[in-house]
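Protein 1 of 2
SEQ + STRUCT:
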Amino acid sequence: MIDRQSDDFFMNEALRQARRAYTADEVPVGAVIVHEGQIIARAFNQVELLKDATAHAEMLALTQAQSAIGDWRLNGCSLFVTKEPCPMCAGAIVHTRIDRVIFGLADPKAGGAGSAMNILQFPTLNHHSAITSGVMEQECRSLIQTFFAQKRASKQNN
């Protein structure tokens, strides 16, 4: 039986998006936003495709979710993302008032959700998001490691 309300279920959907990024030769990060048990936004990194440094999966998903809700405030929403949000994305998550952020792979060098810094729960900000980390971590890690191993191998062959 598939529990369509579980963190694993929604992270699997984020991983589907990450695989789309991988296929498009983008860093394989995927995100989905859930409201009242339903996915209202799906996105993957499109930095290279759009030639836009802000086209991270989270940012694109936030924009879609705002359209779906009809408001910039995303109260009652959860964001599932395969890799810990960067500081830019974490700032946008706080501003849009996402209730909960669930991620797979931590980013100790640049994570904005508790690894390098914790923007999502910064004491002086007007909103704090609950954080759940390590959901399907191995699957998320494997996809990113494979992507970058292939990138390094292709550089060595050129």
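Protein 2 of 2
SEQ + STRUCT:
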Amino acid sequence: MRVGIDLGTTNTVASYIDENGIWNCLEFRQGREDEKRFLPSVVAAENGRICVGAAALDAAMRSPGDVIYDAKANMPTPGKEYFIGGISITAQEASTQILREVYRELKDRFPSEKSFNAFVTVPTGFMTEARIATKTALRNAGFETNEDCLTDEPIAAAVSYSTRLDGDRLVLVVDMGGGTFDLSLLKTSIIGASVGADRLEPVGHGRDMHLGGNDVDDLLVHAMSLKFIEDGGTDLDLPLSAVYHDRELAAAVRRMRELTLDIKKQLYSGDRAFVFVRDLYGGADLDFSITQAEYAMLMTDLAARYKRCIDNTFVGIGYTVSDVDHVIMAGGMAHETVLLGLLSSMFGRDRIIIPDDAMYMVSKGAAICNSDIRLRVENRSYTTIGLLRDSGRGVEVLIREGEIIRTGQILTAEITPASKDATAINIQIAEFTGEFDPSRYTVILSGNVPVMHRKISLPFMGKHPIILKARFSEDKILSVTVIQGKRKDRLDVRLGGK
């Protein structure tokens, strides 16, 4: 069975295509009581055992300091470790636990299936190390994978919606989840008589890796806490990790954050939101209300960050806001009123589409990508990849951020051995965003290639899987060939003579 997984910051969603070609969203036993299609992306340790989802949220009530809420956000940090319940666990291992729960649910639901082949989605801002960690977590969870088992979240959302398009279109996908804000501008093309877009070509992207529904929640919690203090209560704008010693206080802090979901739902459909909790903490009641105008004032700084990301999507790509045919909303914050107001002012309300399945579009698109071999996604590089020079003080660019990667593309760069008697050549390929900064880049391939060997292969699996093959003459020329498959590019780096 082929599966698509949206490994979200707050919740994880999984979809599959059944034997009749019909999309289905998986329901979780460890999901929230009010929405079984969401598996909370939460990991906890209790009594020496790891638990995830709703069970982890329950454990958080008993031991708030032994819970991980931000595993996905720390996937780009390879050395990030958590210590929960006496157990040391990395962000990648925590993500593996979440994905393993998805695997268990599928296995229980479809016991006759011999294997589950999965695509998983990532933010466009994930660089190579985070993509490798996500792939590894997927495989360690028990899933089978193809070489191209990653899909960028807004692209997956566009794939999901593309079946409803009636021709060639320029589409802006706005995907706002719990922790990230991703935008992707795509050209869709119809080939032949097929239904939906057969080809998707990313032409622009914008992102903020630290902007999402959790930031909105923080603002609402702060506002509620101020009102609670005004009414005789104490400050509840505290992290759970700071109050684990006091279960009653931890429960109140947790309850405060849960109330933000109700407030947002009320604001999505009305002019005012209201919540009341009797004896929230210390005998004091929470009596809080907020109007749309007050909410907009609260969101001023976040709105500016929305605007900056949207503007950046159109920088240097040859398209403007007026060229966009559709703005498609995806993710758990698809109905966020301040964001919708900003988009309406920029694009016009008639171009904004909020699908009924907006919260499931990313996982649905991943499942389609995994199942439809006819679909072709033209690849653009979201980072710049270059050959390091002078011990990292400079770089020779091989593929620049935003460039489309085409079949048969050839680039060359000369490598000079340290001396004519050198027995090896050191190769370092780096990736970075924006302008090259000697103090800020990531090495994605590094190796000493022995000169006496005629051929060497160093596999590298990332956004651009790299295979290093060496064949030598006296001139030592490095040639880089980019070969694109049906949906995924492969970057071959070859060392060889002229």
